[in-house]
Specification:
Blueprint: H1 18-21, H2 64-70, H3 75-99, H4 102-127, H5 135-147, H6 153-165, H7 173-178, H8 190-202, H9 204-215, H10 217-220, H11 224-243, H12 247-274, H13 285-288, E1 290-292, H14 296-301, H15 310-315, H16 324-332, H17 335-340, E2 342-344, H18 346-355
Parallel strand pairs: 1-2
Helix pairs in contact: 3-4, 4-5, 4-12, 8-12, 9-12
Length: about 350
C-alpha cells in the first residue's frame, strides 16, 4: 500500500476480521457468540488482498471509537435478512403457481429478481467479511450465495478487492471490463437509454454480461477443491430437479428471474455506482463513486440492504450494510465530504438527469 491517508483507519486501527489483521479478531455483537466465535486459525491475508483504496489524496476520517461501533457484525441480523429474502422468493413462486395467471407470474418474476438481488448484496457483505462474525459461517454462506449467481465468493472477492484498491483505473477489473462497453457510454438521448434498459429487462444484457464474466480472470479464479464443491452443488440441484420434476419451477422462477429482472437491476445499479453523466474520474474517490438519495420504493426495487450508500462503502468497506446510514450521517457532518462527494437525487430523478441527454 502507498503511504499517506487512507479511506479508513490504517489496518492496525481498523476493526476487521482476523484474516486481515493477523492478531486482531472481528468486531461482533454479544449475540454473535451464539453462532460461534471467530476461528483462531484464520490465515493472514497478503497486502494485495485488502479492500482499502490504494490511491492518494485526503479523505474523510471517522474517530476510532465510532468506527469500532460501526464495524461490529451482527450475525443474527444476517440470519434474519437471509431468511426474509429467501421466504419472499418462495412465497412469490408459491403465489404465482396457486393463482395460475400471467399477471401473477410476471409479478413473481419481478419480486424474485428483486430479492435475488438482495441476496447478492448479502453475498457482497460476506465478500468483505461482514455477513457473519464467525469466519466459517461467513465463507460457507457467502459461497452458496455466490453459486446461485454462477460464480464463486473466492473469485468475486479477488475481483472486488481489486476494484476497491484501484477504483476506476485500468487495474480495476470492473472498470476495464465496462469502459468500452456501449451499455455504459452515457449520457445518450432518451431513445438510446430506453433501448439499453429494454435490452436489460428482456435478457439481452444477461448474455452480454455472462460472456464478459466468463472472460474475467479474477472472477473465474478458484482453487480446485472449491470448483469440485461447486460442481457437486450444481449436480445436487440438477439431480433434485430431475427426481422431483422441478425443472419447470427452476426454469420459470430462477433462470427467467436471473436473466431478466436481476440482469436489469444489476445493470442499473452498476451504472449508478460508477458510470454515466457527470461521473468523471480525476483520482478523487469521493467523486469516483455515486451516492443516491433513494426513495423508499427505489430502495425496495433497486437498492436493498442500503446498497445505495456506495461512496460511504468505498470509504469504509469494513462497515456492514445496516450501519451505513449511521456512517452517512457522520460523514455529512464533515464539510469536505459534502463539498466533494458525488450525491445524486435518487435513481429515477438524479441518475436519469445525469444519463439522459436533453433533447435539442
Amino acid at each position: 500500500m502507498e503511504a499517506g491517508p487512507l479511506p479508513a483507519l490504517r489496518n492496525s486501527e481498523r476493526s476487521m476480521p482476523s484474516s486481515r489483521l493477523g492478531s486482531k479478531s472481528v468486531a461482533t455483537s454479544p449475540r454473535d457468540r451464539v453462532c460461534g466465535g471467530v476461528s483462531a486459525s484464520m490465515e493472514r491475508m497478503t497486502p494485495q488482498d485488502t479492500d482499502e483504496f490504494a490511491g492518494a489524496g485526503h479523505l474523510p476520517r471517522i474517530p476510532a471509537h465510532l468506527l469500532a461501533e460501526l464495524t461490529r457484525v451482527d450475525s443474527w441480523r444476517a440470519v434474519r435478512d437471509l431468511s426474509l429474502d429467501a421466504t419472499v422468493i418462495v412465497l412469490a413462486a408459491w403465489f404465482a403457481e396457486a393463482v395460475g395467471n400471467p399477471l401473477a407470474y410476471l409479478l413473481a418474476v419481478i419480486l424474485i429478481g428483486v430479492r435475488l438481488h438482495a441476496l447478492a448484496v448479502l453475498m457482497h457483505d460476506a465478500t468483505h467479511y461482514r455477513l457473519f462474525g464467525n469466519r466459517r459461517w461467513n465463507e460457507y454462506t457467502g459461497e452458496v450465495l455466490a453459486w446461485l449467481f454462477l460464480f464463486t465468493l473466492h473469485g468475486y472477492r479477488k475481483n472486488h478487492f481489486a476494484h476497491h484498491r484501484h477504483l476506476n483505473t485500468d487495474d480495476d477489473p470492473d472498470w476495464a471490463r465496462k469502459k468500452d462497453d456501449p451499455y455504459f457510454a452515457l449520457p445518450q438521448d432518451g431513445k438510446g437509454v430506453a433501448v439499453r434498459l429494454l435490452k436489460g429487462i428482456c435478457g439481452v444484457r444477461f448474455f452480454t454480461e455472462a460472456r464478459n464474466i466468463a472472460r474475467a480472470k479474477h472472477l473465474q479464479h478458484a482453487p480446485r477443491s472449491l470448483k469440485i464443491r461447486r460442481g457437486l452443488f450444481y449436480g445436487a440441484v440438477l439431480a433434485s430437479a430431475a427426481y422431483w420434476q422441478l425443472w419447470p419451477l427452476l426454469l420459470k422462477y430462477w433462470i427467467v428471474s436471473v436473466m431478466t429482472t436481476l440482469a436489469f437491476i444489476l445493470y442499473v445499479r452498476s451504472l449508478a455506482e460508477h458510470h454515466g453523466g457527470a461521473m468523471i474520474w480525476d483520482g478523487d474517490m469521493l467523486r469516483g463513486s455515486r451516492h443516491l438519495d433513494a426513495t423508499w420504493w427505489e430502495k425496495f426495487l433497486l437498492a436493498p440492504h442500503n446498497v445505495h450508500y456506495h461512496v460511504d462503502h468505498h470509504l469504509y468497506p469494513s462497515v456492514p450494510h445496516y450501519n451505513l446510514p449511521r456512517l452517512h450521517a457522520l460523514l455529512l457532518a464533515q464539510p469536505e465530504y459534502v463539498a466533494r462527494a458525488h450525491i445524486t437525487d435518487g435513481y429515477c430523478t438524479g441518475l436519469r438527469r445525469e444519463c439522459v441527454r436533453p433533447a435539442l
